[in-house]
Specification:
Layout (H helix, E strand, L loop, with lengths): L3 E5 L6 E5 L6 E3 L6 E4 L4 H19 L5 E5 L2 E5 L1 H10 L3 H29 L8 H11 L5 H15 L4 E4 L1 H19 L2 H12 L12 E3 L6 E3 L19 H21 L3 E5 L2 E5 L1 H10 L3 H30 L6 H14 L5 H12 L6 E5 L1 H19 L11
Antiparallel strand pairs: 1-2, 3-4, 5-6, 5-7, 8-9, 10-11, 10-12
Helix pairs in contact: 1-3, 1-6, 2-3, 2-12, 3-4, 4-7, 5-12, 8-10, 8-13, 9-10, 10-11, 10-13
Length: 404
């Protein structure tokens, strides 16, 4: 790599020069503090090792029992795959497919793509489709929810212990090791560094900034292009002008999520049958019940994930859209940090949905005790997905548009 490069910040659109950081250091935008790249020690080999290890542990997690539940002389053992099958048997196939996608398919795809890219970049000549695979990694990494599923398992475990005896299976521990390995892989993975390695191997030279022209950076590969270009000259991705009309898309997604959030709270998220006595539980009702039974930490986790975060995201994004529309120039850095926090926290609202999924798969003892998902769970899942899409569609460069 060359020692000095030019870049246009992805989040505030300011051009600046930077030098490739030494090991253990990072490069941040001087204006909005966006972290452009971090140079981790032995990054290539570390990513290969951690991604391969994570894939092995995930494979093992699918083979062995996950949890065993015992109550009134009845035992029930489930695997990860059986937990998804339980939702399908309850006629909630769309919800089952989404959870299977978020917790198994997309994490596996991310790890496979990462392993492919970094192995390819370690060769004298990179493999075909390395460029396309890097694009796939960037598009799916936000939808990986394996660690959220693990937190949901722990919450469910605490809830179930008051109803029955629970024994942890081998897959539970291999799944924890999978999460740890994947987290280490994510920490060592650096998108900008990977693209720079690919450019170097293909002999592509980064464009230098001319003060007389305006530029834009590709959000995928960070390659500089003229402001009038519609597609990146290196990776071919569609370029978005710094000040596009993304605010309309964000508002539309927010309005739809608000509409879905109403039935998500009014409709039951879970149906429970204990010794023939049926009861329905909404999100708020479940939180109140947990609190009344003294399960304060669990009630607090569910309240934050299912109430505070969704409402907070909607309010934050609405406020950001309002400020952008009226060209507010106040506290742009604080608004940028708010946007980043909103984007980061959105996935964690899926905790309650995952808890319902786990309880449905475990507690199926006929007339003694059973749990079925409610339509509130589907509406709430839609709310979470739409708020995530709204955050992704919002262009943070709009915050800085009128800042000198």
């Amino acid at each position: 790599m060359t020692s000095e490069k030019h870049i246009v910040c992805f989040e505030c659109n300011i051009p600046f020069k930077f030098k490739t950081p030494s090991e253990g250091n990072k490069v941040s935008c001087p204006r909005c503090k966006y972290t452009l790249t971090a140079n981790h020690r032995n990054a290539r080999n570390s990513v290969i090792a951690f991604s391969l290890t994570a894939l092995i542990f995930l494979f093992l997690s699918l083979l062995f029992p996950f949890l065993t539940l015992s109550t009134h002389g009845n035992d029930r053992t489930v695997t990860l795959v059986q937990s998804i099958a339980a939702l399908i048997s309850s006629d909630f196939t769309p919800l089952a497919m989404l959870i299977f996608l978020f917790t198994i398919v997309l994490p596996s795809l991310f790890l496979l793509c990462t392993l492919y890219v970094y192995t390819s970049l370690s060769r004298p000549s990179p493999w075909k489709s390395t460029l396309e695979t890097l694009i796939i990694i960037d598009r799916i990494k936000h939808w990986n929810m394996a660690e959220i599923f693990l937190i949901s398992i722990l919450v469910s475990f605490i809830k179930i212990t008051s109803l029955a005896d629970v024994e942890l299976g081998v897959s539970f521990f291999t799944y924890i090791l999978f999460i740890l390995s994947m987290t280490l892989c994510l920490l060592h993975f650096d998108k900008h560094q990977a693209w720079q390695w690919l450019k170097q191997k293909q002999g592509v030279i980064d464009q230098q900034i001319n003060d007389q022209q305006q530029y834009q950076s590709c959000n995928q590969c960070a390659h500089l292009s003229n402001i009038n270009e519609t597609n990146c000259l290196f990776c071919g991705s569609q370029l978005h002008r710094a000040y596009d009309n993304s605010i309309q898309k964000t508002v539309a997604l927010l309005l739809t999520s608000i509409i879905l959030y109403i039935p998500a709270n009014l409709l039951p998220i879970m149906h429970t049958n204990v010794l023939g006595v049926e009861s329905d539980s909404t999100i708020i009702g479940g939180i109140i019940l947990l609190w009344s039974h003294g399960s304060y930490p669990i009630a607090l986790i569910i309240f934050i994930a299912s109430v505070i975060i969704p409402i907070g995201k909607i309010i934050a994004l609405t406020w950001l859209c309002y400020n952008v529309h009226y060209r507010s120039q106040k506290t742009p850095l604080a608004k940028t940090f708010l946007f980043r926090a909103t984007e980061l926290a959105g996935r964690w609202s899926m905790v309650d949905v995952f808890v319902v999924t786990i309880l449905v798969s475990l507690i199926q003892f006929g007339n003694i005790m059973s749990i079925q998902p409610g339509f509130g769970a589907i509406a709430f899942t839609g709310t979470v997905i739409l708020t995530m899409l709204a955050a992704m569609s919002f262009n943070p460069k709009l915050i800085w548009k009128h800042i000198a």
